[in-house]
Amino acid sequence: MPQIRALRRVASLLTTPLSPEDFLGLVNPLSSTRQLRGVVTRVTRETPESTTIHFRPGKGWNAHEAGQWARIGVEIDGVRQWRSYSLSAAAGHDPAITVTAIGVVSTALARHTTVGDVLFLDTPQGDFTLPEHPRPLLMLTAGSGLTPVMSMIRTLVPRRPDADVVLVHSARTREDALFHDELLELADQFPGLVVKHWYTREGAAPAGAGEAHGRRLDLETTTDLESLCPDWRDRAAYACGPADFLDAATALWERDGADDEHAGLTIERFAPVLLPGTGGEGGLVTFEKSDKEFDAPGDVTLLDAGEECGVVMPSGCRMGICRSCLTPLVAGKVRDLRTGEVHGEEGDLIQTCINAAAGPVHLDI
Question: SUPFAM superfamilies this protein is in (predicted)?
Answer without folding.
Answer: 2Fe-2S ferredoxin-like, Ferredoxin reductase-like, C-terminal NADP-linked domain, Riboflavin synthase domain-like
